[in-house]
């Protein structure tokens, strides 16, 4: 029998007066209730945690970053005045696939990256300062929405400008991972050898970034786990689904409805492929600590630019085609987190590729694989595409004879004559070379001796190469389906710990043991009549209802969503909210729900065994019994627990 005792462990709480006053003060303004609530909530949370810092960086680091940003804006203004001058057009930077770089271009790029890492004029060093820009609020504003492409485009340009302070003519190359996907064994690609990025497995002990210390807490040595389980490099055939679309809303989260057409999903799989279970590339916070990150994202930017050029042929203005969103982190007018002063929508400007850089075409058989060295890429006539050479194929092609120098163990730039003669050698710490002449893929001793970084939030691949399904997956992923509603919950992507505008995610990593889960009920009623201007959403046949829990007694935010079939007039479903366990005292949180159109749902609180009444969504949770929450995610699908909160959504 279900009872609500006097000391109910979940009960309605009062809205803080400061928040209530904010709501009242904006009633007459010409903005929607969702916008009022969001603005007040973010302001309240920001005020509550105003003394916290988002990043562990000093004033000197931010001043250096500001100087890089100023250089970008000066160049944009200068070049915009010269846009019709062919001389300056020819002087634009040209970003190329890394295996098509000349020997000198490749060496200059690696030297510039290493120079940033060695420059301690700002703490901890210039490279790490840039890597840490991917933390804090940027974790959420740069992923899972339309600002994904915009934020990273500007981020790449900052990194490229930093490189050019070390080597004036260096341009950021891209890594076209479709060239490796087409290999029989992509993990044997020439890219992850000491000629390019270093060994693919365990501690990175060879190549230009060998034994790099990374700014994790505690510090760790750079490592990889290629190939990650349940991952994928970019499949060129699946990628074509992106280029069958015309509008950004069709290829970006959350308005995109087809996984294969989602550009960010293609991106996610590569992070998991390189980072795997414990490599830096697999973590949202740690991925830029591996320079592979910048090459990978440069290719994503290349693909986005190809899509924008396609839009131009259809007469679509890419600069104004910013998808609709109710996520405040992805609002077009929001200042780019950690990269201020540009706004999120500024990254959609044509100025970047019109005035600063352009891309050399990706390697194809038609362009002779970008004229890459024979030992790096080749045209596979059966696949009708360029494919990366493997480490063994490189040796068979006498590739060593064509390389002047490269990085062996410890980052020392050498190429012994005996290796040129294709004789197996001994690498750093007496790790024997394999039959390819390169050092072994993994140094097991060093990998065991050095701890892996702690992953508080991982990327998850939604597009998976079947060849990577060989080991049991460890990440937590729950989904429940019914005829009309699909509930999707992924801890890696939807469990967020935030505190409004002053996020300290990197300092307070979530621990699943500290979180409790409670069911909520959602009733959605679909009205036939709808607001003009929403037709582009209505035609998608599905839309999301997001439920968001913000901690008021702790710093944290949990977000989850259900997907509702547009054709269903009424649907009922059960979702989950997560909050910090009330181990001692009480937990206070604010729960709200809204649909893809930015329309708020009305919360109701349970007052008897079967009766609900309208309430604010503000809840107080105690540790008393009988408990109205689950101690872990494992029991969250138990249907016997009555939801305390119920949301009525009408759209």
From TrEMBL:
Location of the Tyrosinase copper-binding domain: 143-160, 290-301
EC identifiers of the protein: 1.14.18.1
InterPro entries for the chain: Di-copper_centre_dom_sf, Tyrosinase/Hemocyanin, Tyrosinase_Cu-bd
Key words of the record: Copper, Metal-binding, Oxidoreductase
Enzyme class (EC, first level): oxidoreductase
GO terms, molecular function: metal ion binding; tyrosinase activity
Pfam families referenced in this protein's UniProt entry, alphabetically: Tyrosinase (PF00264)
UniProt superkingdom: Eukaryota
UniProt-annotated stretches for the region Disordered: 317-344
Polar residues bias: start-end ranges: 317-331
Protein name per Swiss-Prot or TrEMBL: TYR
Organism: Mytilus edulis (Blue mussel)
């Amino acid at each position: 029998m279900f009872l609500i005792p006097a000391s109910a462990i979940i009960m309605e709480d009062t809205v803080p007066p400061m928040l209530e006053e904010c709501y009242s003060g904006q009633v007459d303004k010409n903005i929607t209730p969702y916008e009022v609530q969001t603005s007040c909530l973010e302001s309240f949370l920001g005020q509550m945690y105003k003394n916290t810092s988002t990043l562990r960086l000093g004033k000197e680091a931010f001043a250096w970053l500001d100087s890089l940003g100023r250089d970008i804006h000066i160049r944009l203004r200068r070049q915009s005045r010269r846009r019709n001058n062919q001389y300056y057009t020819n002087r634009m930077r040209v970003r190329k696939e890394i295996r098509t770089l000349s020997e000198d271009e490749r060496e200059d790029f690696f030297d510039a990256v290493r120079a940033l890492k060695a420059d301690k004029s700002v703490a901890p060093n210039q490279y790490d300062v840039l890597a840490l820009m991917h933390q804090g609020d940027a974790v959420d504003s740069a992923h899972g929405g339309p600002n994904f492409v915009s934020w990273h485009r500007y981020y790449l340009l900052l990194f490229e400008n930093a490189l050019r302070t070390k080597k004036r003519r260096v341009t950021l190359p891209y890594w076209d991972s479709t060239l490796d996907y087409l290999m029989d064994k992509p993990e044997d690609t020439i890219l992850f050898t000491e000629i390019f990025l270093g060994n693919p497995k365990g501690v990175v002990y060879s190549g230009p970034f060998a034994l790099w210390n990374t700014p994790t807490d505690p510090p760790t040595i750079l490592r990889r786990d290629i190939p990650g389980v349940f991952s994928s490099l970019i499949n060129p055939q699946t990628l074509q689904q992106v280029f069958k679309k015309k509008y950004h809303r069709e290829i970006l989260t959350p308005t995109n409805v087809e996984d294969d057409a989602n550009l960010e999903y293609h991106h996610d799989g590569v992070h998991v492929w390189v980072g795997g279970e414990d490599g830096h590339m697999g973590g949202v916070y740690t991925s830029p600590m591996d320079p592979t990150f910048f090459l990978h994202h440069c290719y994503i930017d290349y693909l986005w630019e190809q899509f924008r050029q396609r839009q131009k042929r259809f007469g679509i203005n890419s600069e104004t085609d910013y998808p609709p969103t109710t996520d405040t982190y992805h609002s077009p007018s929001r200042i780019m987190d950690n990269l201020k002063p540009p706004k999120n929508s500024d990254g959609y400007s044509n100025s970047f590729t019109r005035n600063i850089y352009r891309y050399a075409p990706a390697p194809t058989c038609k362009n002779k694989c970008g004229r890459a060295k024979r030992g790096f890429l080749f045209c596979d006539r059966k696949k009708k595409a360029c494919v990366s050479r493997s480490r063994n194929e490189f040796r068979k092609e006498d590739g060593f004879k064509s390389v002047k120098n490269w990085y062996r163990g410890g980052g020392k730039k050498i190429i012994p004559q005996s290796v040129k003669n294709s004789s197996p050698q001994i690498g750093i710490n007496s790790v024997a070379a394999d039959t390819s002449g390169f050092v072994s893929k993994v140094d097991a001793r060093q990998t065991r001796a050095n701890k892996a970084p702690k992953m508080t939030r991982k990327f998850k691949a939604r597009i998976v190469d079947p060849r990577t399904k060989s080991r049991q997956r460890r990440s937590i992923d729950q989904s429940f389906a019914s005829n009309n509603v699909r509930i999707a919950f992924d801890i890696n992507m939807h469990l967020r710990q935030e505190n409004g505008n002053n996020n300290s995610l990197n300092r307070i990593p979530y621990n699943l043991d500290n979180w409790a889960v409670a069911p909520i009920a959602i009733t959605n009623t679909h009205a036939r009549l709808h607001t003009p201007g929403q037709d582009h959403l209505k035609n998608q046949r599905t839309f999301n209802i997001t439920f968001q829990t913000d901690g008021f007694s702790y710093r944290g935010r949990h977000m989850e969503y259900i997907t509702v079939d547009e054709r269903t007039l009424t649907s009922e479903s059960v979702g989950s909210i997560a909050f910090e366990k009330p181990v001692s005292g009480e937990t206070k949180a604010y729960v709200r729900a809204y649909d893809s159109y930015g329309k708020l749902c009305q919360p109701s609180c349970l007052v008897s065994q079967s009766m609900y009444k309208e309430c604010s969504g503000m809840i107080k949770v105690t540790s008393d019994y009988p408990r109205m929450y689950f101690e872990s995610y494992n029991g969250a699908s138990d249907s016997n627990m009555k939801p305390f909160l119920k949301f009525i959504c009408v759209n």
